[in-house]
Amino acid sequence: MDEDYEDGHRFHIDDQKNKRNLEIGEMDVDGSNRETIFLKNNYLVKNIGAVVRDLRSLGFTSMTEDAYASAIFSLLKAKVHNLAGDDYRALVLGSIKDWIQAVPLQFLHALLAYLGDSFDCDSMSSGLKSPLASRPSCYPGIDFPSEGLVRWQLRLEYFAYETLQDLRIGKLFEIIVDYPDSYPAIQDLKQCLEYTGQHSKLVDSFISSLRYRLLTAGASTYDILHQYVSTIKALRIIDPTGVFLEAVGEPIRDYLRGRKDTIKCIVTMLTDGPGGNPSGLGNAGDSLLEELNRDSENQESTDYDDDINSDDKQAWINAERWEPDPVEADPSKGSRNRRKIDVLGMMVNIIGSKDQLVNEYRVMLAEKLLNKFDYDIDSEIRTLELLKIHLGESSIQKCEIMLNDLIDSKRTNANIKASLPQPSLSGSKLGGTDVSLDILDATIISSNFWPTIQAESLNIPASVDQLLCDYAKRFHEIKTPRKLLWKKNLGTVKLELQFEDRNMQFTVTPVHAAIIMQFQEQTSWTSKNLAAATGIPVDTLNRRINFWISKGILAGSAGSDSDDHVFTIVDDMNTNGLIHESSEGLLAADEEGERSVASVEEQLRKEMTVYEKFIIGMLTNFGSMALDRIHNTLKMFCVAEPSYDKSLQQLQSFLTGLITEEKLEMRDGLYFLKK
Amino acid sequence: MKVKILQWHAVASWTWDAQDETCGICRMAFDGCCPDCKFPGDDCPLVWGACNHSFHLHCILKWVNSQNSQASQQQPQCPMCRREWQFKA
């Protein structure tokens, strides 16, 4: 635009120059000495006014206006960027508005007054008042705002809104990372969007930054989930109807569904709080579930404060609150279910079904409970109560029974010990170790309601075995006709290794305890003999014994046979360091196999094998089938026990398993038998 | 070297030892509970009849009551073997 003017219009160059001066003069205007500086600048205004009037008389009215408008806009833009910047912790919209009042509007007022426009407008609009002019606003130092000035104000404010909005949308990803610290920025953005209505801009830009920055292989599932939760919370403020959230959440959900550890992470996040979050992103405090609960309590108290539970009244209130969906709403999706934005609901939405969430939670809970030393389950009870509120009582019935088992165990345990005071003490002095019933605690579970527990054979030391026998006998007497079945490989053992020069304490699994106790009588074992003595398969033994090797208690060396190792107890401290280093890697491998409860996938696999024959038969008959056809056929025909109740995703993962086992193959979405 | 056990926390499961998997009346597992109960074990015990058939206590009580209320005035029978139902001492 500048070029247009410069060829031949000397006046305009002056005009621009003057205005530059004016801008510089007014840049650092604040409210207090506005008036004095304003007077100083009066001269400039007059100059510009003269130029503008001259240009107008030449017929360049619109051009001159464009010129000073663009100067003001660029000034305003700089001001917005300057005020808003990268700080999301303060509301800036208010101060921007104040600045618009204080600086550009004052200038325009003076200019318009000088040009005599304001007078013209006033007299004109007295008869025909524009609705814009009726907008209540106060103009410091200006008594009667003209319509021209009001137009300018609206124009400037719209421009400010748009600039701030663009600025914030560009940085929305960071703003949401900072949530809830960035709450003021979200508030500003909300106001801007209400004014400009450019929500779709937000959606597009945010989705692309999500794709670029979050939904990549490098981001941990925890981080993605945290960002998802923050996004839900932040967008809930901007758009309570949830339409844009729907659009933004979809890519995140799609992506998370493709990750294997999503369910596990969600459950950990829900139940463990920041402790379960290795990246340390979670804010200090309690679990997500606690937070959700507080949220829902707050919501309820505001929603139903005057609720006398009359449906008519509530319906009326709802009707009054009704607002049409934004234009961008996808009409194919019902508007009903998006009314309520429930964070947990949206998390469950990622997983697919509540049942899967509950199953995963149950496995994690079982793992936790079985590895407890005491019967302290207060935090688990609290979590369960919270889950109950969100997921319904019936779905977590089994988890409740599990916790109840622990409570019962505590009582029974105390009972048994009280009723068996001394006789066992003398009776169990076997093998040179004194063990009394005092050291034995038991968790007694209702196995039907627990996840499948991996049973392993194990010969535990005779002294402890005797104790278990006594305990079971006592249980049978107290709870006739119930019997106890020991799961000898489960539980935890605290033991102390007493060497000549030192004592070491360990908390280990019964398997580890059984292994190390064999070394009391004999300082060196071959793996075959040790396996026979402890009743563990040789390969399992080799894996498990790594624990003691890594602690520097045992040393392994190759025996006479290639796959027979000799393990010897290490009495000498000096060699510890060396051995420790060499076995680090092995330990890591060992820990993976340490779970006592079958994971959800393993369980699913076990359950699905029933259908393997059906699927193979089907594929023999039909040649090839698509996934959903297999699913539907199974649903149709497997109605007898066990009826087919798996989801499409579960079937798919099972079929993928069969493909890796080379039983099936897949081409173009169709499954075939492998020939 | 000596090993001293400081504490051994073992895990066990309980069973009614009923020689059968499920209750003949409600078809639920014996080691589970009857449809009316929430918690297995003490809350939903098993009983044995003189004929050595076992049921959830709540299930057989329902059965006995329904038989008693019928007009026939017969002694209640075991639902499995039709012998007269008596609780095993």
UniProtKB/TrEMBL annotation, chain A:
Chain ranges of the Cullin family profile domain: 346-549
Ranges annotated as spanning the membrane: none
InterPro entries per record: ANAPC2, ANAPC2_C, Cullin-like_AB, Cullin_homology, Cullin_homology_sf, TPR_ANAPC2, WH-like_DNA-bd_sf, WH_DNA-bd_sf
GO molecular function, one term: ubiquitin protein ligase binding
Keyword Ligase: no
Family of the protein in this entry: Belongs to the cullin family.
Protein name: Anaphase-promoting complex subunit 2
Native source organism of the sequence: Cocos nucifera (Coconut palm)
UniProtKB/TrEMBL annotation, chain B:
Keywords: Cell cycle, Cell division, Metal-binding, Mitosis, Nucleus, Ubl conjugation pathway, Zinc, Zinc-finger
Coiled coil segments of this chain: none
GO molecular function terms listed in the Swiss-Prot or TrEMBL record: cullin family protein binding; ubiquitin protein ligase activity; zinc ion binding
InterPro entries, A to Z: RING-box_E3_Ubiquitin_Ligase (IPR051031), RING-H2_APC11 (IPR024991), Znf_RING (IPR001841), Znf_RING/FYVE/PHD (IPR013083)
Subcellular location: Nucleus
Recorded GO CC terms: anaphase-promoting complex
Family matches, as PROSITE patterns: ZF_RING_2 (PS50089)
Pfam families linked to this entry: zf-ANAPC11 (PF12861)
GO BP annotations listed: anaphase-promoting complex-dependent catabolic process; cell division
Record domain RING-type: where: 34-82
Functional pathway: Protein modification; protein ubiquitination
Major place of residence: nucleus
Family: Belongs to the RING-box family.
Identification of the protein by name: Anaphase-promoting complex subunit 11
